[in-house]
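request received
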Amino acid sequence: MTPDIAAILAIDGIASGAVYALVAIGTVLIFTVTRVIFIPFGDIAAFTALTLAALDAKQLPGTAALVAVLACLACAMESVALVRAGAARALPRAILCYLALPLIVVGIVWAAVKFDPPLPVRLVLTLMLITPIAPLLDRIVFRPIADGSVLLLLTVSVALHFALVGLGLMFFGPEGVRTEPLTSLSTEIGGITVSGQTVLILLAALLFSVLLFLFFDFTLIGKALRATAINRTGARLMGIRPARAGTIAYLLGSLMAGVSGILIAPVNTIFYDSGFLIGLKAFVGVIVGGMTSYPGAALGALGVGILESFASFESSTLKDVIVFSLLIPILLWLSFGAPHSDEEIEE
Amino acid sequence: MRKLMSLTALLAGLMAATAARAEITIGFVTSLSGNGSSIGIPYGKGIAAAVEYRGEVNGEKIRLIQLDDGSDPSAATRNARKLIEEDKVDILIGTATAPSTIAMMAVANELKVPMIAVSPVVGAPNAADQWGISVPQPAGLLVKIVADRMKRDHMKNIGYIGFSDAWGDLVYNGAKAAEGGEDIKILTNERYARTDTSVTGQILKIMAVHPDAVLIGGSGTQGALPLLTLAERGFKGKTYGTVALVNPDFVRVGGKAAEGIQVSAGPVIVAEQLPDDHFAKKLALAFRAAYQKANGAPTTDGFSAYSFDAWLIFTEAAARALKSAKPGTTDFRKALRDEILNTKELAGVHAVYNFKPGAYHGVDDRSLVIVKLTNGAWKYEP
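response:
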């Protein structure tokens, strides 16, 4: 291996690592607030890419139907829960949040598709359509079992992933998509070309990482979200509503999945089932980062990307074996080295 | 008493009527969902076109029962059993993935029902007890035709990159079998997965051996990934592949990077460019018309044509088998099996078929032409 090849591999590794970093940060965000290891995160990112591609092709994306169905389900569940709790006067608000708002978004997209909107509008439409998905899934699937153990939440999360992959095939079809690059700029660093798209992904990962770090450590809402994660009952006693905290986390997470999807769509061919492997490699990064640290998860994910890149040069058939084997020594080291945290004792 | 007698008479009459109006029943299994669906959905559309093209044999109606196996071999097995035992089908056609096809073939052999496979089946059957045949060109032949073209183009050093699955192995082994002496040499064996996001490492390794040409052992949309990376790294040599790459999404995703790739494919892919005396020309155009009528959209792939050819093989054999037996009987199934294995010089849209006991495949070099991607369209390169 010459220094040239090593440099190209490193750049390529950082580019795919940055994608994993975005997904890893989103996974940490949802995990720290809700204790759910949100496996479908990668799927939502893949759906975003497919949605954008459908809008580029002037078609109504399958996500519109998905959001409409989820909205109806969530609204029905919320209404039943409210009526049973004897809080029927909160019904109009629930219908507005869970049914009307998502359906308005779907309506706007449906109307806008006919006018062949320019790229920035298409990006906004895509994000608008993707953002409701995770909060609606939260209401339908996770809210009723919010007090369950981490293991139960994980199992349900895996099941939800399989359901979403099936729905993805139904709504988007089996073929992959690749969208137009957001920027055609490229720079040269030390004789190696770096595409503008890679720089964009890196910047986004860095930005989200820093913003979330600041949000959770220096704002009241952020601290409230963290308090919910550590002890739901204690947080309620302090006047924090766990359900609302979860919704905020899922909204943020969904938005991040959307941004990741938009950023990776031009550099990778995305299929309805591409999200899982991206999510899994990001998850390795999350574990390396110790499950709760944003900068840690981002660095871990970058490391996974670089390792993967060099592994594919050395032995392409064993690439995934090398990446996932990495988990074993890390888990051993973490379990011997780190003291058990408060969260685990509470389990 | 009289009532009972008249009832018996009515029943007897009904039964006689059923026997006289016997129709040929076909069990068709394909993968409309799961990971084989990008091939399985075209198979389904191809059958619809075939029914549109020829809906009856010698005046006997054909009844088609279609089931989805979800790309799952155990579902394919269940479907095959259900079709044979409950629906009493005369013949099975299926399915999209190789493992499911092999599973169905085992059921067909066990319950003695003829089967036409639309996926490649590896190995050789027991000639005395063979109930199945396979329509598509075997992988070895696909690669052999490409290798012949490389030799004609005076390529010497070949780089290989393919999927890290059975398909990647088949193409690599086919290419390895074609090298030897002063001819082509396969220098690399790089692999990637369908869900991979980057192949930069593999491509750098290929570029390091300075190949004259690169052979792609991928399929569909993701077959374009090595080509995109090769173009990014400034590779100037030629590229080759197999028919597995031919689909509109490959061309769309590959764009400029895929330009100039040469693949071996069934003649149906370039039907209108074939010379007038080519065996597949007239039939392929008829197939396209039938497909358009049945599905309301033009054909864009070679897979649907395999179902169409399977249907041609079946209808030709059924026409001969009907002379000796009635549909729905064991005799008919046996006659149909014998006639399928007795197919001689039958021209389809992919190949000229010659089946005989002891071999699944019945195609030769005529079943493949080399096509080149030029300005986003496949061009016939004789």
